[in-house]
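not sure who needs this but someone in the group chat was asking about Putative cell survival pathways protein from Pleurotus ostreatus so here u go. i didnt clean anything up, its just raw.
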Amino acid sequence: MFSSFFTAVDPTAQNLFPVSSRYEPKDLAGELELKDQAWTCDGGFATETQVFYTLADDGTALMCQIIHSAVGVWYPTVQFTCRIFNPKTDTNVWRSVNVANFVAGPPGLDKRSSKSDQFSVTYKSNPGSDHPESYVISANLGPDLQISLDVQRPAAIPGWKVGKGPKGGFTYFGPDIEKPEGYVVHRFWPRYKATGHIIRNGQASAVEGPGMFVHAIQGMRPDVIAQSWNFAHFQSDELGGCSAIQMELTTQKSHGKKGDGSGGVSVNVGSLVIGGKLVSVTAETHWPGESSQGDIVSRATHLNPTHDADTGYGIPSEILFEWAAPSIVSGTDGLVKASVKADIGDVKQPKGLIEKVDVLAEIPYAIKMVVNYVAGTKPYVYQWLNPATLSVSGPESVCPGSSLEIAGKLYNEATFIS
């Protein structure tokens, strides 16, 4: 019975198991199961989010996000945050509301739906149709702002996670993958069709255009998980609909292939939609000190950074996002490759900068007081929206002419934590 007291863990043992390293190229595309879109509302220290990113046809970028934050024994805090940005109309609205009476799985609905006094998100299923799944979002964020949105997933563009089965999508932290100290998981709809409206100060404006949805959970303190994040969201209506999405975290030094001090591992997942079809899912791990190998590419590269005196971080003037993976289109073999470069200017002359979000200024007071690591971090999220061109190459059946230049819009984020 006392053996556990004398069980030593090798301090140089691997204590990170990235989802991007656990699956063969042919197994990267994992279909979503019913529970993958359901709220878990875990306790302990966990942050769970559902985010809808819409790039409307009129140039508006609309983000609607629900954040469920648990801190130890404290009662969870739930926020609804919203960003409305349109450079053509000089619109930049940010709203963050602590909601009351949150319920995951309202009466008559399962946990893919949720509601509170301030919003409702209702999941609907219509199997066999052109749009077999949808969410209806309704939010009253004050007397001056209401949102109503219907987002529908096309049948030919399924939701995905990296890897099949219940462990698909999970990156595990700690030396024992069967008993992890924490985890991160992402599930995506890479492209949806959105219709609805925004009411600001009593004036309604229509919203219509493509977008993407992500359900993510950080089952661990966020400062322990990552030192930085990158996110790319490209959408275009060309060729019947295209998208390129990517999510990348870079771990703290505490988690890596050789234990504490070997971290700074980049874990990147993404996907490509070309011609209205999901054509590939990408996933790549970059271990410090090792060169990348193989045909699979999923990476974000910061170029020409400059110092931002406001935040203390080195901010890139360009970010290169790259994808490469085997086609998952039935009857089509070969690699599908793509890249897009975000030209975001420098600190003094930014291009398409929406906001530099001071995360500590936005999180609830109770969380700020309880989480004693706050003093050692200063997280900022940089958000940009710019026109961009996605360069694609691949098999003729996926990429007519074997190469394409697709014009669209790119929303991207760079998050710096420490």
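also The chain has a mean pLDDT of 93. if thats useful
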